[in-house]
Write a structure and sequence with these properties.
It contains five helices and no strands. It starts with 12 loop residues before the first helix and ends with a helix.
Length: 132
């Protein structure tokens, strides 16, 4: 563990990033990323914080921004909140498709899944850049 303290008693950037890394490891242990799309209830809320845990992930990134002072983490947090809304929208469309036997709702859900996935790929790339 890096615990470097500056002369004024504040933690160094390295120490802050070490804390963020420990928070990330704890988060991943508590909330592992599903390997396949879970059942419909999890797409909405069902204890996930909303949007397939994306709202919780956004909270984690906002805390990371606060702890490190790196504004890019807040920007990514805000973007994850929008992605969370898309996943919640997918849940609504899938529910609608099931209730109304609507192919249009399924098509819309499919498009929204692709949009969310592309955005998440971009956001994860940004996070990887920040970690290197």
């Amino acid at each position: 563990m890096i615990a470097e303290i500056t002369e004024d008693g504040t933690a160094t950037v390295e120490a802050k990033f070490a804390r963020v890394q420990r928070l990330a490891e704890t988060h991943m242990a508590l909330f592992p990323v599903p390997r396949q799309l879970p059942g419909l209830p999890y797409l909405g809320d069902a204890g996930t914080g909303g949007g397939l845990f994306r709202a919780m992930w956004a909270d984690f990134l906002a805390e990371t921004a606060e702890l490190t002072g790196v504004s890019a983490f807040q920007e990514i947090s805000d973007a994850y909140r929008e992605v969370s809304k898309k996943w919640t929208g997918v849940a609504g469309l899938l529910h609608e498709a099931g209730v109304a036997s609507s192919r249009e709702s399924l098509h819309s859900a499919s498009k929204l899944v692709h949009e969310a996935a592309e955005e998440e790929q971009h956001l994860m790339s940004r996070l990887m850049e920040l970690s290197s």
